[in-house]
Amino acid sequence: MAALSVVLMSIGTILPVATYAAPVLCMMAGQIVLKLCGSRIAWAWYGTVSILSLLLAPDKEAAAVFICLGYYPIVKPKLDRMRGKWFWKGLLFNSSILALYWVLLKLIGVEQLVEEFSDMGAAMTAVLLLLGNVTFFLLDRLLDKRLKRKN
User: Fold this and answer.
1) Three-class secondary structure of residue 82 per DSSP
2) So what's the pLDDT on residue 14?
3) Which of 24, 35, 92, 123 is exposed most, by the fewest CB atoms within 10 A?
4) Is it the case that residue 141 has pLDDT exceeding 60?
5) pLDDT band at 134 (very low <50, low <70, confident <90, very high)
6) pLDDT tens per residue across span 67-106
7) Which of 72, 63, 74, 65 is nearest to 91 (CA)?
8) Closest Cα partner for 99 from 62, 69, 58, 138?
9) What's the domain count of the chain?
């Protein structure tokens, strides 16, 4: 499953939308690893895919998105048992994404991203974050459906 995930991350540069689709597909593979092998192996899988994606995937932004959110299927069962789970899930997503793009823009200074965000403006960046939240909660629902169907 780790090899499949790294391949998905590597071929993810074919389509522009794959920057976000490839990490989502890898997270679905992570859910399978969690279900079949348990959380210890799932964490090892996550670490392996993160390192190999960062080294091998041509789209470094997709690899960074996976590094920041690829562990979500592993922590999702714990978040589902908490009170106010939607708040905690939203907080996890938003803090992870904002930290990721802060690192990419301010510390690493990825020029392509700097240009994209400066061209979009503040309003479109807020819309992009809103759409990211919608996509994240749709992913959460998809992971729920897959988990219920497997049981």
Assistant:
1) coil
2) 78
3) 123
4) yes
5) very high
6) 999 999 999 999 999 999 999 999 999 999 989 888 877 7
7) 72
8) 69
9) 1
Please enumerate in sequence order all residues whose Cβ is within 8 A of that of 110, keeping only pairs 6 or more positions apart, or say none: 60, 61, 104
Helices (H), 38-110: 39-56, 60-69, 72-80, 85-102
The tens digit of pLDDT for each residue in 52-62 reads 999 998 888 88
Joined tokens for residue 67: 């590094």
Cβ-based neighbour number of residue 143 at 10 Å? 20
The pLDDT score that the predictor gives to residue 48 is 96
Is residue 29 within 8 Å of residue 69, measured between CB atoms?
Answer: no
Q: How far apart are CA 136 and CA 145, in angstroms?
A: 14
Q: Of the candidates 112, 105, 95, which has an alpha carbon nearest to the alpha carbon of residue 58?
A: 112
- Range of the structural domain that residue 31 is part of: 2-150
Nearest CA to 93 among 29, 49, 139, 34?
A: 139
Closest CA to 23 of 107, 125, 136, 133: 136
> Can you read off the two tokens belonging to residue 133?
């939240």
